[in-house]
């Protein structure tokens, strides 16, 4: 297999005891390269963490709004169930002849033969719930 030659020039580094400045230059160059790589990786990690944090915050806000809506719907359901029970109770009472008789007498001022109805204007009479 033939070996391919590299297109860029690589200079061998002379690390003999007589040339310590070259060794120092090499170490400084390696430190600069590592520092750049660490800075670039830190920047990429910061962008990734920021993106995920914003997604997490948005999902938390959506969850909170959904919980508020759920609580509101539960209250609305409770009111509807209470109203349904009240209306069912009224329908059941309307099938009772005695209750129906009393309701007609008090609400519509009906009377039996020979009875006289006296209307007394009063706040207490307005609150009769039949």
Automatic annotation (TrEMBL):
Keyword Transmembrane helix: yes
GO biological process, one term: cell division
Superkingdom of origin organism: Bacteria
Residue ranges crossing the lipid bilayer per the database entry: 38-57
Entry annotated with the keyword Membrane: yes
A Pfam family hit: DivIC
Coiled-coil residue spans: none
Keywords recorded for this protein, A-Z: Membrane, Transmembrane, Transmembrane helix
Record PANTHER family: CELL DIVISION PROTEIN DIVIC
Protein name according to UniProt: Septum formation initiator
Species this chain originates from: Bombilactobacillus mellis
């Amino acid at each position: 297999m033939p070996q391919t030659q590299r297109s860029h020039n690589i200079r061998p580094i002379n690390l003999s005891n007589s040339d310590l400045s070259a060794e120092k230059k090499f170490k400084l160059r390696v430190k600069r390269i590592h520092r750049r790589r660490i800075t670039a990786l830190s920047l990429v990690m910061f962008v990734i963490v920021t993106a995920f944090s914003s997604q997490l915050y948005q999902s938390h806000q959506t969850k909170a709004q959904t919980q508020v809506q759920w609580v509101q719907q539960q209250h609305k359901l409770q009111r509807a169930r209470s109203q349904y029970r009240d209306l069912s109770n009224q329908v059941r009472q309307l099938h009772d002849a005695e209750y129906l008789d009393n309701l007609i007498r008090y609400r519509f001022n009906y009377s039996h033969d020979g009875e006289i109805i006296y209307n007394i204007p009063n706040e207490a009479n307005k609150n009769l719930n039949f």
